[in-house]
UniProtKB/TrEMBL annotation:
Gene: GLN4
Taxonomic superkingdom: Eukaryota
Source species of the chain: Neophaeococcomyces mojaviensis
Alphabetically ordered keywords of this record: Ligase
This enzyme's EC code(s): 6.1.1.18
Record protein name field: Glutaminyl-tRNA synthetase
Main EC class the enzyme belongs to: ligase
Length: 655
């Protein structure tokens, strides 16, 4: 059997000979082909000499194909957001994204970010990032910077970063103004009394709503008591400022004399320290801060629909500019949990690494898992914006991410659970250089060379100890193609470890056709990596594969609680995984894809600092396995990969 070999005359010589033989009859097309072959041979020769320092094509990382992502402005051009714009066609659009700095943002917030920042950007307006920091009990410094970072990562830059607390003096003055206009009073009722005033249908409070006895307090008394409340006369819950709304007449609970100010003694506020011991409520603060900032369209989620009435009532009552509040449907993902309290429990009980564990749906987790920011925005855009709540399965999100990655990240081979294959009919020092394209669907991504040698590794799943008609991969006596290698291999024998029962080594032959014999194409091709110390191949990696964290679609409804719904196999780590040498180039050329929010071309972060793409921007498709990125725990000695999504939808939830 003739063995393919690099021995004897060099490949460059061989190609030159071929070119010269063909000279008299060469067509233009052939000429081009031959020139390419000669160039390739030079490249191969250089590669063989220099080991891993292979010549690299380094075209720019490609941008998103229009076929992959629908018009990124579609959600603003049509539907609900278009209607909102028509309702108030202000010349200068001002919006705001107003998170409470009491936790990490989740996938639902990406909709609010896309809606508010995106609406302003689309209309040439401005969007504030306003920290709604009126509850010092729940706020922490780390959440402020995490929120700013994630907004910058999504590709948005706030017009200004503001804090509701910036307005505490102004809000206090308006509270006094409201009292003076007989629009608020100091109430000393406790929680139970307030509940009773609301009436209802329960046995306990089966009676009509009624007003509290403090409602008719003289204005002067309320003003004096408000000041006393500010100055420390009352303990928390002993008194609060209550708005005098509509005398409990309407059926809207947001109009039943809401609280405007309450006492919070501890802890100190992160910005105003111990200056205040009374803090304005959301209902008093939000509309007035919107007003101070000249917000034209205050876009929030549907659970605030009843608040619209109190929002407008207060702006009118203190005679300030009145923005327009409109409400869109929340984005909710099923099969996971988003509640801060519940995620905190998962972290505390060690069920996940931290808030950025790739199995969670916080934005820091999705970022670490390798989901590109553009894929998140594209998902939100695909769903569109209406007033209906979107309950979306995580598989739908993953399918959107997969679609986005398909055209935008390069490909290479990684064997996550390897078995060694020795190809007996190749010489010990055999090295053939094989070309692998980074982007079979996008030639601009270029290609790279990798070695094919006598010892290769294939995926454990691609081998069976007994051949059968329905198995087209490797088995004793059966042959299979190795991707990018001309001839297939046939398994001749294998060894097993008696203790573990696992196959440890496969022996095979390369089926090079004898002269005159025709080459039979194998039924299937599998991925592989070769052993070649000279080329630093293979590259050892840890590959983490994530399954859903929960067994059911509704972990919140599981008894006794969501903790009982956790899957044991939500994280599977393959510690002996092997990647081919192309990984080095993919790492060097990151970010993949090169897009808004991750560019390292001097783009600015939230504070004007130059943004650097993180390790998660090293993204690629491991052929036949899934999409992966590099984890932040990667060190110079150990590369850790996270699976972003599989190549196709997982068969389902664990039993
Ligand atoms: N699931 C969601 N879908 C769309 N927008 C959301 C969602 N959750 C929050 N938002 C919006 O994000 C903005 C800032 O959110 P904030 O942190 O104050 O919300 P939240 O309701 O406390 O969130 P959560 O309790 O879910 O963490 C608000 O305008 C809010 O309406
Ligand atoms: N109007 C809104 O967007 C609400 C924001 C507010 N921080 C909240 O969710 O409680």
């Amino acid at each position: 059997m003739a063995e393919p070999s690099n021995e004897g005359s060099s490949m460059v010589d061989k190609v030159k000979e071929k070119v010269e033989d063909a000279l008299p009859t060469r067509s233009k097309k052939q000429e081009k082909k031959d020139k390419k072959a000669a160039e390739k041979a030079v490249k191969k020769e250089q590669y063989a000499k220099e080991g891993s320092a292979a010549p690299k094509k380094a075209p720019k990382a490609v941008s998103i194909e229009p076929t992959v992502v629908r018009d990124p402005d579609a959600m603003f051009k049509e539907g609900w957001l278009d209607e909102v714009r028509k309702e108030r066609p202000a010349k200068d659009v001002y919006t705001r994204f107003p998170p409470e700095p009491n936790g990490y943002l989740h996938i639902g917030h990406s909709k609010a970010i896309a809606v508010n920042f995106g609406f302003a950007r689309y209309h040439g307006g401005k969007c504030y990032l306003r920290f709604d920091d009126t509850n010092p009990e729940a706020e922490e410094e780390k959440f402020f910077s995490a929120i700013e970072d994630i907004i910058a990562w999504l590709g948005f830059k706030p017009y200004k970063i503001t804090y509701s607390s910036d307005n505490f003096d102004r809000l206090y003055d308006l509270a006094e103004k409201l009292i003076l206009r007989d629009g608020a009073y100091i109430c000393e009722c406790n929680d139970e009394q307030i509940k009773d005033q609301r009436g209802g249908t329960d046995e306990k409070n089966k009676h009509p709503r009624y007003a509290c006895k403090h409602r008719d307090r003289p204005v002067d008394e309320s003003l004096a008591e408000f000041r006393a409340m500010r100055d420390g006369k009352y303990k928390p819950k002993e008194a609060f400022l209550r708005m005098k709304q509509d005398d409990f007449k309407t059926g809207n609970p947001q109009m039943w004399d809401l609280a405007a100010y309450r006492i919070i003694d501890e802890p100190a506020h992160h910005r105003t320290g111990k200056k205040w011991r009374i803090y304005p409520t959301y209902d008093f603060t939000h509309c007035l801060c919107d007003s101070f900032e000249g917000i034209t369209h205050s876009l929030c989620t549907v659970e605030f629909i009843n608040s619209r009435e109190s929002y407008e009532w207060l702006c009118d009552a203190v005679e300030v500019y009145k923005p327009m509040q409109r409400e869109y449907g929340r984005l909710n993902l099923t099969g996971t949990i988003m509640s801060k309290r519940k995620i905190a429990r998962l972290v505390k009980e060690g069920k996940v690494f931290d808030w950025d564990d790739p199995r969670l749906y916080t934005l820091v987790a999705l970022r670490r898992r390798g989901v590109p920011p553009g894929a998140i925005l594209s998902f939100v855009n695909e769903l569109g914006v209406t007033t209906a709540r979107s309950n979306i399965q995580t598989v739908r999100f993953e399918s959107s991410v997969r679609k986005y990655l398909e055209m935008t990240v390069p490909r290479l081979m990684v064997v996550i659970d390897p078995i060694k294959v020795i190809i007996d009919n190749l010489p010990e020092d055999y090295v053939e250089e094989v070309e692998n394209t980074f982007g079979p669907k996008n030639v601009e991504m270029g290609s790279h060379m990798l070695p094919f040698t006598r010892t290769v590794y294939i995926e454990r799943d691609d081998f069976r100890e007994t051949a059968s008609k329905d198995f087209f991969r490797l088995a004793p006596g059966a042959s299979v193609g190795l991707l990018k290698v001309t001839y297939p291999i046939t398994c001749t024998s294998f060894k097993k470890d008696d203790a573990t029962g696992l196959v440890t080594e496969i022996r095979a032959t390369l089926d090079t056709p004898a002269e005159g014999e025709t080459f039979k194409k194998p039924k299937s091709y599998i991925h592989w990596v070769a052993e070649s110390p000279k080329h630093n191949s293979p590259v050892k990696v840890d590959a983490r594969v994530f399954n859903p964290l929960f067994k059911s679609e509704n972990p919140e409804t599981v008894e006794p609680d969501f903790m009982a719904d956790i899957r044991e196999d939500s994280l599977v780590t393959y510690s002996n995984a092997l990647a081919e040498v192309g990984l080095t180039e993919i790492q060097r050329r990151a970010p993949w894809p090169e897009e808004a929010g991750e560019a390292n071309d001097g783009a600015e972060g939230a504070h004007g600092e130059v943004k650097k793409p993180g390790p998660e921007s090293v993204r690629f498709q491991a052929m036949r396995v899934g999409y992966f990125c590099m984890d932040k725990e990667t060190t110079a000695d150990k590369i850790i990969l996270n699976r972003i999504v599989g190549l196709k939808e997982d068969s389902g939830k664990a039993a």
